[in-house]
Amino acid sequence: MLATQKQYVQWQENKDGNETLHQARWLSESNHMPPARIVLIDDNTTADEAYRLACEGTSLLWRGDFHNAKQLLQALNRRIERTNERSEQRKIKKAANQSAKSNKTAVESSELSKDIPNLFHQQRQIQAQRARILSRLLLELDANYVSQLRRAPDVSAACMAAFGQLDDSCVLSFRDLQGALGAAQWREKGVPIESLGLSIFPHYGVFAPTRHEYVQLLLDAPLPKIHDVAYDIGTGTGLLAIILAQRGVNQVIATDLNPRALSCARENFTRQGLANVQLQQADLYPTDAPLANLIVCNPPWLPAKPSSPLEYAVYDANSAMLRGFLQGAKSHLAKQGEVWLILSDLAEHLQLRTREELLGWFADSGLKVKYRLDTKPKHGRSQDNTDPLFVARSSEVTSLWCLEPA
C-alpha cells in the first residue's frame, strides 16, 4: 500500500530549448527518500556513465526504450559485481574457499568461526550498497501506472495490485517495478507445496514460502489431545493456518499486522474453501479470542535489522518478535495447550544468537521443551560451497520446538 504521507520529486527537462520543471509522486517500497538530484538518460547513455553517476548519488530518470532499461540495469549489476570482486568481496571469497576446503564445521574451527559474523555483516553491507545503486535507475509512469516508454508492457494491473490505486503520475525505481511484475507472476502461478498437494499464492510484499521444508514437521507433529482452537501468529500467506485447518483443528485464528498479508491469507483461505479460519489484524496475539490449545509461529529467523519493509519477514531486530511471541504465549494457552515454534538455527551458526539465549527465553516465558522435530535444509545455497557463508548454511537445522507451560 502507498504511504499515507505523499512525497514528490522534481526535475528539469529541456524541450525545444526551454527548461521546464516537472513534478511527480514519489514511490519507494524500500522507504528511500525522494532523490535530491535527477538527470535524464536514454539509449545513448553508456553503462559506464550511468554507473559513475549512480555511484555519485545521482538518480537516473530513463527516457529510452523499456527493454534497454532492463539491459542497463543488468549492466549496472555486472559493474557492481566487478567492483566488489576488487574490494571486500575478495576477502569474503578467500574465506569461502578456506571454508570449502576445510572438513571442520564453524564450531570445530575457531579460526573460521571468528570470521563468520564479519562475513555475514559484510555481505549485508554489499547487498545494501548494490540495492542503493540499482535503485537509482528510475521510471516515470502516468496516472494508473501507464508507461509512455517505447516497447513498454502493460504494467498497470501489476502495479495496482502491488501499490494500490494511484490517480497521479509517479516516479519509482525500475527495481520496484520489476518486483511488482515478479509478484504478479507469483500471484498468478502460485508456489507449489508438494507435501500438501496444493499451491500458495503470495502477494507483493508478503514473504513467499519458497523454502518449505518445515511443512513436513507440522504434518508430523502430534496434535494436542484437545485441539479445538489454534492461533497462527504472523500468518503471512496463511500457509500454517491452512495446515492446521486441514489437520482437523476446529477453529484457527490467524493474525498479522501487515494489511497485505491479511489480504493474501484471506485469498489463500478462500481458494482452499476454509470456513474455520478467522483473520485478525493484530501485533502478535488476537483480542477477544478463546484461549488456544495450540499456538504456532514461524517468526523471522535472523536477529538483524531489516533495511526495508520487504525484509521484515527475514530479519527480526534484537529478536523482538520472537521474544514478544514467547512472553505472551503462556497467558494465551488453554490448559494442557502447546506452542509450536518453527525456527532455524542459522542465527546460531552465524553467531547472532546462542542456543543458551534461546533456551533462556523459553524459561523466562514460563515454558519448557516437550519435544523437538528437526529437518535439514534442501535449498541450493546450503549445498553451494562457493557461498561465503557455506559453513553456516550447510550446518543449518530447522526445528519445530514443541513447548508447554513449565
Explain this structure to me?
By secondary structure, the protein is α/β, with parallel strands linked by helices. The protein has 13 helices and 15 strands. A seven-stranded mixed β-sheet has the order 11-10-9-12-13-15-14, sandwiched between helices. A six-stranded mixed β-sheet has the order 1-2-6-5-4-3. Strands 7-8 form a two-stranded antiparallel ribbon. A hairpin with a 2-residue loop joins strand 1 (8-15) and strand 2 (18-26). Helix 2 packs antiparallel against helix 4. The model is unreliable at 103-110 (pLDDT under 50).
Short recap of the structure:
With 406 residues, the chain is of the alpha/beta class. The chain has 13 helices and 15 strands. The strands form 3 sheets. It has a 7-stranded mixed sheet with strand order 11-10-9-12-13-15-14, with helices on both faces.
